[in-house]
Amino acid sequence: MPHVPGPSLEQPPAKAPPPRHPDMIVDPACITPEDRAGQLSVRAVLVGSVIGSMLCASNAFFALQTGWVTMASLQAAVVGFGVFRVAHSSCGCRRLTMLENVVVQTTSVAASTLPLAAGFAGIIPAFELMRKEGHPGAPPELSMASLFLWAAVLSLFGVFLAVPLRRDAILVERLKFPSGTATAEVIAVLHRVAAPSPPSGTPAIGLSDASQLEQPQAGAVPAAAAGEAAAAGSAKVSGRDAPAAEEPGMSVAEQDEASEDAAWTQRWRVLGFTMLAAAAVSVVTEFVPVLHSLPVFQWMGVPLATAVGWTITPSLSYVGQGMIMGPRTTASMLLGSVLAWAVMAPVAQAAGWSSGPVGGAEHGVKGWVTWLALAVMLGDSVVIIGSTFWRLVGSLRAKYGSRMPSAVCCRGLCGAGKAPSSTPQEGASLIPRSHSSDPASPLVRGEAGAGGAAGGVAAAVDPAVAEGTLPSSLELQVLDPAEEAGENVPTMFWVVGLALGTAACAVALSIMFNSPIYEPLVAVMLSCLVAVVAARALGETDLNPVSGVGKLSQLFFAAVAPGNVTSNIVAGAVSEAGAQQAGDLLQDLKTGHMLGASPRAQFFAQIAGSLVGVVVSVVAYKLLTLAYPVGGPELPAPTARVWLGMAELVNGQQLPPYAGLFAGLFGAAALLVSVLKAWAGRPEPGEAAWRRTLRGAMAWAPSVMAVGVGMYIAPNWVLPRCAGSLLQVVWKRTNSAGHDRLMLLAASGFVLGEGLMSIANAGLRAGGAEPWTCDGCVGELACSGCP
Predict the structure, then answer these.
(1) What is the greatest pairwise CA distance in the chain?
(2) What whole-number distance in Å separates Cα of residue 435 and Cα of residue 431?
(3) CB proximity list for 131: less than 8 A, separation 6 or greater
(4) Element (H, E) at 572
């Protein structure tokens, strides 16, 4: 009788986990298939949308006041984690997984930054000012439906644009994206994830490296990342808690759980108290206008100082922003305020260089000073964008060898343009497909080759690479764990999405503003180009120069549509939106890449968050502008004046007397400082002594962009930020442990409390509520509703 084999006891081989890129701080093998499959969960998107909606409403208010918005990726991750921890403790809800938290913060960031990306900080208010001031060619007022369409078409095409940039920016160039890196570090600590041991010879970012992050230049969150990581719970380097003293009747695990519950109870109390305090102050200052801007210099007999904004605004939200920004940024802003509003404004007023009222934004001192601020910001933006482009060309030369001209290697200014190397970068194999087409080849997959290279670095180099004679059809083979796991966004999807988004944006804007179809189409194509440079600048410096990108686009567009101020502003809006959205998603993708999250899940989370942000930002903008006039004391919209001024300048408008001269001087000074800071660069082996001296001096130089911001917003918005940064420093020095645990949440509570209450205040004012008293108010300086 023939033997019939029984059922085999052998299990089919399990699918191997995706490989680990050198930048990952989580071993992909530690991520369960269930967690990977469930990362784009409905609950994660909903919680991220709720957090993002609150931030979006707050940002709509603050953007119209000072042009500044908060991305709050760290806050979103911490609050999202806390929400599900409380739900788990109270009703047994399943805890939030690490990958779900990536989706939470991605969704939240996409929604929270929409007021800036969709132009509600400067572009739409600029149109309002054009109509208010009777500018020829002012666009008609956009209906609610038109605003929804405007925000949607501007926000979505930048999301598709970020997908193809991910490969070079994150996998090949391995740009740092400091805020994204800090967020990944904090999420890893929150979820008690161990950092894997780095392969031999491979630098990896571990949980202890958060303190080495670059400091943000424009008030981004990472300055507090190291403290928040310590505050998020007991930091693990082995995946387990440190042993605790065991109490009778409780296991170590139960003690840890109780300790963490107590810690989170304290955090929620701090967050709730700071939100309530900020909301209460907001209500009082809204209906007692004298408290909104205390005219201390008026009381001291110096009315000119009061007229140009030297008042005290007791705003806890701006105190919270200053706590997050840190002393370097706020001190730079204060320097800008002093230069503009304590030096140049009185000089311009005394010399008669401004023809209008002292506080006039069009012909008064405020309008005159705006040109100086614009020159400073443009000078810094030119250096940031130019040096980033220079580094980009330098990296291409290093990648493609002698096929790139040698002039692009700029050792000094860039700090990154180096001679071509015969070894590929970590995480990439410079091997043509025709030379190694086997998918299982260790060189293609980035595994250790015959020479024993580790960490995803190819051991062998193709002779064509070493000789710098790469074939024109070269395709770099990049170690991409998401590709191995089948989690990338399909190429056809983003290509079709980008094409449809471009077409929709061009058609919609052409109809809205009655312009030839080629104008918005050129604007979108220009946005795609400048977004590459802006996103790279964000990856290197943590500063996305969206404002500078927009202004440079306006300069270029003056040749496309000469004399058309509206088209010029629209072109800048498109460039700003593309750079903002692409940069946001790339920063989130950096966070997800370090934690092993799916780029596809993050992509859809970004779309969901953007759509939520569109709705919230439009509703918030209409409610705020219904209650308060754009350009008034409550909503001065300073960036709108900058956008409008730039459009008028490039289209031939004459500057006020001596504004051009002093703008040139301030711009040249900003350009010089920015060039010296870029030239100083990072330490290099064997560098000259003068280079070390220059770098030491530039370490004390102010943030040029923050100086420019301090010049164009009134001092009353800068002073509370300085108070917040000072409070943060004192707190850190007197109670370092409490600062590390609670500072970021306390600051976030201040920002959220006043931001959300401001929307409620606007609803009350739109419904006819009047100030309780106008005693002591200095009229239009504090409240547009006072006589």
Answers:
(1) 115
(2) 7
(3) 138, 139, 141
(4) helix 565-595
Question: What's the rounded Cα separation, in Å, for the pair 772 and 2?
Answer: 100
Enter the DSSP assignment of 72. Answer: -
Between CA 361 and CA 518 the distance in angstroms is: 33
Cα–Cα distance, 253 to 148 (Å, whole number) = 50
pLDDT tens per residue across span 558-568: 888 888 888 88
Report the candidate in 224, 329, 235, 267 with the shortest Cα–Cα distance to residue 744.
224
Q: What is the pLDDT of residue 149?
A: 93
pLDDT digits over 684-709, tens only?
Answer: 677 778 777 888 888 888 888 889 88
Cα 60 versus chain centre, distance: 15
C-alpha span between 630 and 628 (Å, rounded) = 7
- Distance, in Å, from the CA atom of 650 to the CA atom of 665, rounded to the nearest integer, reads 19
Contacts of 415 (CB under 8 A, 6+ apart): 391, 678, 681, 682, 684
pLDDT tens column, 13-43: 555 666 677 778 887 777 888 888 889 999 9
Reported as half-sphere exposure (CB side, CA atoms, 13 A), residue 356 has a value of 14
DSSP 721-749: HHHHHHHHHHHHHH-HHHHHHHHHHHHHH
Task: Single out the residue of 546, 582, 213, 577 nearest to residue 384, CA to CA.
Answer: 546
Q: How far apart are CA 370 and CA 376, in angstroms?
A: 10
Residues 107-133: what's their mean pLDDT?
90
Distance CA 574, CA 528 (A): 9
Q: According to the model, what pLDDT value does residue 10 have?
A: 44
Nearest CA to 637 out of 375, 381, 377, 362 is that of 362
Strands (E), 86-133: none
Nearest residue to 618 (alpha-carbon basis) of 141, 43, 114: 114
C-alpha of 301 from chain center? 42
Higher confidence at residue 73 or residue 255? Answer: 73
Tokens of residue 8, six digits: 């085999």
The angle, 0 to 180 degrees and rounded to 10, between the axes of the packed helices 599-627 and 144-166 is 150
Residue 525 burial (CB count, 10 A): 12
Structure tokens, 652: 């031939």
Number of neighbours of residue 299 by Cβ within 10 angstroms = 12
Mean pLDDT of the region 84-106 = 88
Burial-class residue 484 by CB neighbours within 10 Å (0-12, 13-18, 19+). Answer: middle
- Record the tokens describing residue 65, joined without a space: 């006041």
Alpha carbons 189 and 263: distance in angstroms, whole number: 15
Dist CA 448 CA 570 (whole Å) = 51
pLDDT band at 602 (very low <50, low <70, confident <90, very high): very high
Provide mean pLDDT across the span 445-449.
29
Give the DSSP H or E segment for 757: helix 736-766
Split at pLDDT 50, 70, 90, the class of 260 is: confident
Provide the 10 A C-beta neighbour count for residue 18. 21
Query: Which amino acid appears at position 265 of this protein?
Result: T
Q: Which of 781, 634, 720, 709 is nearest to 313 (CA)?
A: 720
Tokens 């509206």 correspond to what residue? 566
pLDDT average, residue stretch 112-126: 90
Q: 331, 431, 419, 288: which is closest to 772 by C-alpha?
A: 288
Tell me the pLDDT of the chain averaged across its residues. 75
Kindly compute the dihedral angle of the four CA atoms of residues 641, 643, 644, 645, in this order, to the nearest 10 degrees.
80
- Select, from the ranges 21-30, 222-231, 411-420, the one with the highest average predicted confidence (pLDDT): 21-30
Q: What is the DSSP letter of 218?
A: S
- Helical residues (DSSP H) of 203-353, grouped into ranges: 225-231, 252-287, 296-299, 303-307, 316-325, 327-337, 345-351
